[in-house]
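Entry 14. Structure prediction run on the chain below.
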Amino acid sequence: MTDVVDADELLRRIQRGRAHAAEAERSWRERAQSLTATDPDGAREAAVRALAYEAVLRVLEEIVSPGGRPAAADGVKQVT
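Output returned:
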C-alpha cells in the first residue's frame, strides 16, 4: 500500500470493506442453513466462515462508528 490517501478515501475504502463483509457473512449464513440437512460438515465450515466475516464486520463497524451499538446479527445456528 504505497498510495497516500486522505481521510475521506480511507473512509470510503473501509465502508466498501464493511459492505463486502456484510454480504459475505449473509451468503455464508445462508449456505450454512441450506447445508444443515444434507452436509453437516459443510454447514459447520460455512458457519465458521460466517462467524469470521461477522467479526470483520464488527471491527469495521467500530472503526466507522466508535462506541456505537454493536452490529445486530442473527447469528449462525450451531451445527453439531
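Residues 12 and 77 are 32 Å apart (CA to CA).
Filed with the rest of this week's runs.
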